[in-house]
Amino acid sequence: MSYRTEKDPLGELQVPSEALYGVQTQRAIHNFPISGIRPHSAFVWGTVLIKRAAAVTHKEHQRLDPRVADAIISAADQILSGMHHDQFVVDIFQAGAGTSHNMNANELLANMANESLGGTRGEYTPVHPNDHVNMSQSTNDVIPTAIALGALRLLPTLYDGLDTLAKELEDKSKSWDHIIKTGRTHLQDATPLRLGQEFGAYAEAIRRDKAIIQAAEMPIRELSVGGTAVGTGLNAEPKYQTRIIEVIRESGALPVKRSENLFYSMQSMSRFANLSGSLRTLSTDLMRIANDFRLLGSGPRTGFAEILLPAIQPGSSIMPGKVNPVLAECMNMICLQISGNDVTISHAAEAGQLQLNVMMPIIGFNLCQSIEILGNGTRSFAEHCVSGLEADERMIKFWLDRNTMLATALAPRIGYARAAEIAKEAVKTGESVPEVARRLTDIQDDELNEALDPAPMTEAGIRSDDS
Fold it and tell me: DSSP per residue over 298-321, as a string?
């Protein structure tokens, strides 16, 4: 490998000749060989969008030579289109606040711009990483803005996934509304409900969770760019602070606006913690739904077996014919990751001090990862699991016929104590509730059949002689 020599305030350092980044990025590579995990692509996109918007704004305000500005804009456009993401090489566990990531972007854009103008990689003329690419910016306002932009870029995919999942659950709810099944509380038999009601509740949970996330999104739209180092906007003219937001909104097609208080937006990461918390709320419901699927689909001969999960891949390397609930298990793992990410984001958000939170790189990565895997996971769960579910009506009826909690419907007629006696006797003898009721009460068959008809039990009301 060949190298070039670059210099920064700490001295000279060799940088690989083919690298588009520069000396400060190279120092970060040496200093932080921690995880091998590089910044999330949405976070990279957000960072470069800021650099592009700054160059556009400075060109309009005549602070940047048009040739320099256009070269930076062209370089940014290449990265925004997906090129050169391999040149963002700084580990997510890095110098506090994300200075190394910010300089990685500055050096990359400067080198690309210089080469397009006939300059030499690593010499930073006529385009300098700090003086031109980073003009009117600080790591301290760029990084929280990049986190926000990355999240806003990813959220529509999550919303699409949630809509798809909710619709599939609603479709099952409608098509299965005629199927009466055993309810279960404490994992013990309970009074009947309809399978459609069960799945309708799942759909409602997803819809409500989406609304919670959308509410948490609103503060994310307020950007801190323009606050520079501590929120005062030093070295950034006031008209820049307004115009760069407009350029970001137009070029990124994002519903953003300037923060009403730049000091707050740079000090506090609570809006990101709040959004992460809403994702964890969603993951709590998704974990519960996935677990229900695993229970309801357990078997197929020795479990509940009330629903049949689609067989999408073999389930065992040793047991022939075994099929596992792999999409539900995948969703479980996603939800566990969301939980861990949220704990990290929460603690990182509270670790801020005075005018800056130096834990922003890990907040940005975890938040973007959480949104991305939830978006991909919910769509996959909907398309490859929920859409292919089938109800095993034979097994559902089998369990319903043996449900001793049907005796609950007799309580208004004969009292709780006698109804409990009938349920207990049914468990003891293995008889059905109607058989025991006929033996232990004087209720006529037609009245008993009417009282123990499970269909009306799935609606509100009291089953009695007057009903």
Answer: --SSSS---EE----S---SSSTT
On whether both 382 and 450 belong to a single domain, the answer is: no
45 domain residue, yes or no? yes
Q: In this structure, are residues 406 and 454 in contact, taking their beta carbons and an 8 Å threshold?
A: yes
CA distance 155 to 46: 13
Q: Is 301 exposed, middle or buried (0-12, 13-18, 19+ CB in 10 A)?
A: exposed
Which CATH number fits the domain that encloses residue 437?
1.10.40.30
The span from the CA of 65 to the CA of 45, in Å, is 24
The last residue of one of the domains, among 394, 410, 435, is 394
Instruction: State the CB neighbour count (10 A cutoff) for residue 130.
Output: 15
The answer to whether the predicted template modeling score (pTM) of the entire model surpasses 0.85 is yes
**Boundaries of domain holding 431:** 402-457
Q: What are the tens digits of pLDDT across the range 24-67?
A: 999 999 999 999 999 999 999 999 999 999 999 999 999 999 99
- Active site residues per annotation: 316
DSSP state, 130? I
**Same domain, yes or no: 340 and 449:** no
Q: Read off the pLDDT of residues 192-222 as tens digits, 9 standing for 90 and up.
A: 999 999 999 999 999 999 999 999 999 999 9
Q: Evaluate whether 286 touches 331 at the Cβ level (below 8 Å).
A: yes
Nearest alpha-carbon partner for 51 in 8, 92, 124, 102: 102
| Shared domain check, 423 and 376 | no
Backbone φ, ψ for residue 390 (5° rounding): -130, 150
Which of residues 394, 412, 432 is at a domain's end? Answer: 394
